[in-house]
Write a structure and sequence with these properties.
11 helices; two-stranded parallel sheet; alpha/beta; seven-stranded parallel beta sheet
Length: about 325
């Protein structure tokens, strides 16, 4: 009988979390969107196929006997959105699906639900690190849906006694990473020049091993708890510094030429890539003081260790091409 449920276990973060929980002796039940399990999930893990998350998803079988739910299943940020109403799609999965799970979890006697939200509930850019009580001004449908899910979860927790713990991570990297971070690694590994030699921004990143450690630590909170935590690595760095660190870890020369950020932003506007350029040259920082203080949590992996593990995975040939939605 499982004591822990991980939703979204076939994803990048979920498969790492399942592996960590299993290594600690937990009986883990993992829900998958497809029959193919995540690359880091132990073969003996109990799995259930839940291909669609929404207002009518039936979770009772997955919740049987479970004390703690880690809810990672979500409709994530889509780079090439094709829907005429993307917010509706995000709300169906990230809001309605989350509420359905929380209500059934409370009815099933689950003690706590740990929800993976996003720093995007605060916004897209800040020079002053976000704190948990910083204004909530999401800029895209994904961020809006995560904020609405948070608010609904807190209401359900207060009504039912289900402990609700919410983590808001920034960009997460590590073995199995997809999307823009993987694209950047491929570009650097091939020695292609980048016009990012003059960025003075600062961004908080989060190694997947550090995120998993924080998620696991949140299960130590007593029943009935209500917590929200921003979480990030120990050090912030600029895009230029990140590229240099990646090149060093990959053992390739750095190929950067300095273009002022304002010119890059202008080029982004003219070519329709303004948001992508803004993420490369803008700052986005988080303050992890609360989780470090309340849970005595310290990220177990440094930036160098996290990048080294990511590069070893990349070099192993397992860096698959991202599937298009």
């Amino acid at each position: 009988m499982a004591d822990v449920l991980v939703t979204g276990a076939s994803g990048f973060i979920g498969s790492h979390l399942v592996a960590r929980l299993a290594s600690q002796g937990h009986a883990v039940r993992a829900t998958l969107r497809t029959k193919e399990a995540g690359p880091f999930i132990p073969k003996e893990t109990e799995t259930l196929l839940i291909d669609t998350v929404g207002a009518s998803t039936e979770w009772s079988k997955a919740l049987a006997g479970v004390e703690t739910v880690y809810h990672l299943a979500a409709r994530v940020h889509v780079m090439r959105e094709r829907s005429s109403d993307p917010l509706e799609l995000y709300r169906e999965v990230n809001v309605a699906g989350t509420l359905r799970l929380a209500r059934q979890a409370a009815d099933a006697g689950v003690q706590r639900l740990i929800f993976l939200s996003s720093v995007k509930v605060h916004g897209e850019e800040t020079d002053v690190p976000y704190q948990e009580d910083s204004p909530l001004v999401p800029k895209d449908p994904y961020g809006v849906s995560k904020l609405e899910a948070e608010e609904a979860l807190l209401r359900i927790g207060r009504e039912s006694g289900l402990a609700i713990v919410i983590l808001r991570p920034p960009l997460v990297y590590g073995p199995g990473v997809k999307a823009n971070f993987l694209k950047l690694m491929r570009w650097v590994a091939k020695g292609r020049p980048l016009p990012l030699g003059k960025t003075s921004n600062l961004r908080t990143l989060l190694f997947v091993g550090n995120l998993v450690d924080a998620l696991v630590r949140c299960a130590d909170l007593p029943p009935g708890s209500e917590r929200i935590y921003l979480v990030g690595d120990k050090e912030d760095l600029s895009t230029t510094e990140l590229i240099c660190c990646l090149a060093s870890a990959l053992g390739v020369p750095v190929r950067l030429f300095p273009i002022p950020s304002n010119l890059l932003l202008l080029a982004g506007r003219l070519t329709g890539h303004q948001a992508a350029v803004a993420r490369l040259v803008g700052s986005l920082r988080v303050d992890s003081t609360r989780i470090r203080s309340e849970l005595t949590w310290v990220p177990p992996f440094s930036l160098e260790e996290g990048l080294a593990k990511t590069v070893r995975w990349f070099r192993s040939g397992n860096a698959f091409v991202e599937r298009r939605p």
